[in-house]
């Protein structure tokens, strides 16, 4: 296995290398979004303002999927990405936004990318006098309004993912058709993963293998979609596509595992929301599954007593859970992250990239995960 050690300096270098990709992604997304807004002038109705109101969320992402697809294309083809490629690849970011809008409703998260989540921001637009009254499904009519508008925006955003591909007229029609087929396959698999994630919330036990199956379908599948997009655009061989997809699986697993550590504050965290959110909400992450399998009986009881208490969570609860995770789970989790990063880097070494800069970027993207704080 390859050496995967990384430093804070490597993280800074990655940010420098990713900056042009973020700029190109945002430029292509902005053009698509501006065209959408031009077709739909802002009206007096609050529902006509939600997309504009939440647009800051659109342009605040890491763009890892976009960078994987563009760098993968350039590395496999040896050609710089033209405007058609840059537009088409944004489908990954639009689709990811679509899932985030829905995730925030399902999880009742009020923050996204250090900004108010769409459904929560939309509640401010509700004009009814009964905003504090409890509704049938949601806490209040105001909350139901905000969530409903976010669902509608999610559907609009997903349509922009399709439009990103359909409007990339510089690509041959068969290529666009295959990209749309990939989007559909992501839809089917990722929704299965999200369903399993919801099922875990009430499951008496979540084994690590169960979590792995869910994560591959959810986080992993969209990263595989990024690798598949690169290969389709570059007309790569089946072997090179499968190897790049293997990189995507291993990378996404390491990425998600690091996110789980950050989301509990077990390691220093600068995430957009609260680093104790996963603990308070009782999220069934890999950390949770590993804790259930590794904690001695007495410590497991203490863990379950303090985990997932919602608004009743105390500082003592958070501290107790973190200490137990650091003592019994953190080392195994970090070893797992390192193994997946090594496997990801090894996969890259098996791909005959025509542009070595692309390989270097993707390798660095994987190797910095153990030092990532946001």
Keyword list:
single chain; 374 residues; Farnesyl Diphosphate Synthase
Explain the layout of strands and helices.
Elements: H1 8-39, H2 50-53, H3 55-58, H4 64-77, H5 83-89, H6 91-107, E1 111-112, E2 115-116, H7 118-122, H8 141-166, H9 173-200, H10 208-234, H11 238-264, H12 277-281, H13 286-294, H14 297-306, H15 315-328, H16 330-349, H17 356-367
Description:
The protein has helices at 8-39, 50-53, 55-58, 64-77, 83-89, 91-107, 118-122, 141-166, 173-200, 208-234, 238-264, 277-281, 286-294, 297-306, 315-328, 330-349, 356-367; strands at residues 111-112, 115-116. The longest helix is centred in the first third of the chain and has 32 residues, at 8-39. Strands 1-2 form a two-stranded antiparallel ribbon. The model has no long low-confidence stretch (mean pLDDT 91). Helix 4 (64-77) runs antiparallel to helix 17 (356-367). It is built from 17 helices and two strands. 70% of the residues lie in helices and 1% in strands. It has one domain (8-365): Orthogonal Bundle (Farnesyl Diphosphate Synthase), CATH 1.10.600. With 374 residues, it is mainly alpha-helical.
Concise account of the structure shown:
The protein is 70% helix and 1% strand.
What does the main sheet amount to? 2 strands, antiparallel
CATH class: Mainly Alpha
| Regions with little confidence, pLDDT below 50 for 5+ residues | none
Q: Give the rounded overall mean pLDDT.
A: 91
Share of residues in helices: 55-70%
Strand content: under 5%
- The assigned CATH architecture is Orthogonal Bundle
Label the overall shape.
Answer: globular
Number of H- or I-type helical stretches: 17
Q: Give me the Rg, rounded.
A: 21 Å
Taken together, the total number of domains comes to: 1
Tell me the structural class.
mainly alpha
Order of helices and strands: HHHHHHEEHHHHHHHHHHH
CATH homologous superfamily designation: Farnesyl Diphosphate Synthase
Task: Calculate the terminal CA-CA distance, rounded to whole Å.
Answer: 27 Å
Q: What is the CATH topology descriptor?
A: Farnesyl Diphosphate Synthase
Strand arrangement in the largest pleated sheet: 1-2
What's the total count of β strands? 2
